Amino acid sequence: MTMLNPDFAEELKQFSEDSALACFNCGTCAAICPLIDSHFPRSMIRYVQIGAKERILEAATELWKCLHCGLCTQTCPREANPGEIILGLKRLVLDHWRKS
Amino acid sequence: MTQAKEKEKQHATKVGVYICHCGGNISDHVDVEAVRRRLEKVPGVAVARTNMFMCSDPGQELIAEDLKNGVVDRVVVASCAPSLHETTFRNAIRRAGANPYIYEHANIREQVSWVHHGAAATEKAATLVEAAAAKAGLLRPLTPIRVTAARHATVIGGGVAGLSAARDLADRGIPVTLVEKSPCLGGQLARLDRIAPTGERAPELVRALADAVLNHPHITVFTDAQVIATDGYIGNFKLTVRQEVASEAFTGTEACYIPFSGMRPAGPSPSEPREFNLETGAIVVATGFRSYEPRQGEYGFGDFASVITLPTLIRKMAEQDTEGSFLEIDGRRIRSVAMIHCVGSRQIPGIHPEDASGRLNEYCSRTCCTATLNAACRIRETHPGTRVYELYRDIRTYGRGQEELYEQAARDGVVFLRFEPDQAPEVVRADPTDGYPLKIRVTDTLTFSENLEVPADLVVLSTGMEPNDVSDLVEMMKLPVGVDRFLLEVHPKLRPVEMPVGGIFVAGTCQAPFDVGETCNAAGAAAVKAASLLAEGHVELDPFVAEVDAERCKGSGACVEACLNPGALALVEMQIGGQTVRRAQVTPALCLGCGACVAVCPENAIDVCGMTLSQYEAMVDAIVADQVAADALR
Lengths: 100, 634
Ligand SMILES: Cc1cc2nc3c(=O)[nH]c(=O)nc-3n(C[C@H](O)[C@H](O)[C@H](O)COP(=O)(O)OP(=O)(O)OC[C@H]3O[C@@H](n4cnc5c(N)ncnc54)[C@H](O)[C@@H]3O)c2cc1C
Ligand code: SF4
Ligand code: SF4
Ligand code: SF4
Hints:
- The complex is a heterodimer.
- By secondary structure, chain A is mainly alpha-helical.
- Chain A has one domain.
- Chain A has 7 helices and 1 strand.
- Chain B folds into 4 domains: 164 residues, Rossmann fold; 208 residues, FAD/NAD(P)-binding domain (3-Layer(bba) Sandwich), CATH 3.50.50; 173 residues, FAD/NAD(P)-binding domain (3-Layer(bba) Sandwich); 64 residues, 2-Layer Sandwich (Alpha-Beta Plaits), CATH 3.30.70.
- Chain B is built from 16 helices and 34 strands.
- In chain B, a hairpin with a 3-residue loop joins strand 13 and strand 14.
- In chain B, helix 2 packs parallel to helix 6.
- The longest helix of chain B is centred in the C-terminal third of the chain and has 21 residues.
- The two termini of chain B are 41 Å apart.
- At the A-B interface, strand 1 and helix 3 of A face helix 11, strand 23, strand 25 and strand 26 of B.
């Protein structure tokens, strides 16, 4: 069970673009992304939406597979800017590692 | 005309047969040319022609030319279902100066080419057209029945549908009586605040509409009133209206708007219940809907005081219209509100329990998605500290300006979760450590079907629509009801505001879930239909009604007993050959043309015009003759 954490969005603001809630989970980004993991990068966007910080940290290494090709951001119909959020999450994770 | 005379005339007629390709819809499966050749040889058929599209202008022109040139005097078109184009061809005949009832239709698309293929299709098509030609040979010109129509309309229900239908009718100069059951006008719209997608204030809309109605010289309004009896027929309905004593006496000399009730017309309200009669030409039924009432325990409803319905939320928000970081409901600060969609709508057999009378609401209520998003946006914009979660099955923001509201909600920070119908969210008491009174457990398909928990101070159930119980009106006026219990129009596309009983129309959410715009569309359509019906002072009805052959009738009265519509048939005294006898007599305006009487008459003395027994015998003969010929070849 994961309890939704509405305060995570606030925490993330210092690291990342605050556009995750614009995402309506269509999956276009996951389809266009050259990486093969089925839900990436939507998986990360979704965890941001519900504030599942633990989930993001658990799967942190995934973030470094991102090529920053920008295809997801280009194709996102809601302009949720998934590519930027992935970059922002890397900053969050680095900050977390530094502190721990 | 007696049947003997009809028989005589048979060979005097010149039947024209017109066979349609329907672009290929028919001719891909039916050898249209072969059918034409066969029909050409049928006795009584003067010409048989084909066309790519009989319903096109050139197609209709073929018929008109033949009629004008005297080549034909009876017409058969073999094409699609008569519900589509029978009227088209009757009108073409009328325009050519002939009587439109010399027409017979053969359906060789739905009944042939769409369901049969190859030689069998051609064979069946030819047989159906031969039968139609045989019947056409016996058709005679008929005159539509003309009945005078009272220039007055009655609207039942004073919600936005009833109000706008009444206003539209009265604006055309037609006197209107509006009968509303409750003490106020405005219906459910009066129970809303800012409405989607425009953000207009519902009280202002209701007020404007109700003012226009109450101040209209052609409209009489009765509140606390109901129609308790109906009689008569199109153009000549007789209604009995009963007005109760208002539960709260109202003495105001001016109409006043009561928030969340509606517009109360000027008093004084009557001190005694009263009943009165109305003669009216047309009726618009606009009895609206009620909100679904959740079952005890459904998503915690009734178990937890902080589980409320969407209409309740809308009212509480309007009544405590305070600014501030957090929404406050009943004096409680709401940090987190969870809204659950599709409560009491889109129920699925086997998943959702039936109500006490064994029913399920399988339909989508259509307005709740948008109304929920509208409320969510409003909360986020006026109380940015309050978090909003929406748990949905599907988001159905189908209309103009509604998808924008969905996008707006996302931009306002509303978090969406999606559940499968068989994995409904569960509203439970939260653990003391959770910091919230309630939480919702949900298997969220957007999060890869992980189990999530949503913390909540308030849970809002997006309850759907159910039609108001109008079983008394349904019974009295013989209105058809769909499996969803909403009133059922004659045809959902082609005749969307008409009831099968002539002169009765339907408007608004008593027919289906509609938003306010759609409700007004329907009301406008119903008003126009009613107004055009009443404009002439009389109405013309199809002449397909029973007709008695007084020479044959022996007055047994079997037909009167069999008749389904009281008043359509009666035994009356008349003079025949110097003697007073009792014979059956038809009241054409009341006759349904069902033929129940024809079946029981021992004397063959009663027939339905345009569908006489001898015409059917001729059809059967034609079909059997085909069979005999085929057997002979074998
Ligand atoms: C929670 C909620 C939110 C909504 N939000 C929106 C929105 O934001 N935007 C939007 O466009 N639409 C919205 N709607 C839909 C809107 O409320 C309806 O489209 C509209 O009110 C329908 O009007 P109506 O006249 O058909 O029915 P009603 O408003 O139900 O009116 C029917 C009237 O008939 C009367 N009546 C019933 N039976 C009888 C009888 N036997 N004899 C005499 N009178 C009778 C009733 O008392 C009532 O006054 C919402 C609906 C709900 C439930
Ligand atoms: S930017 Fe990263 S997440 Fe986006 S498509 Fe490219 S590789 Fe995939
Ligand atoms: S493409 Fe955009 S809207 Fe669609 S899932 Fe990815 S981030 Fe969300
Ligand atoms: S409009 Fe939305 S909430 Fe209402 S029944 Fe349809 S899908 Fe469910």
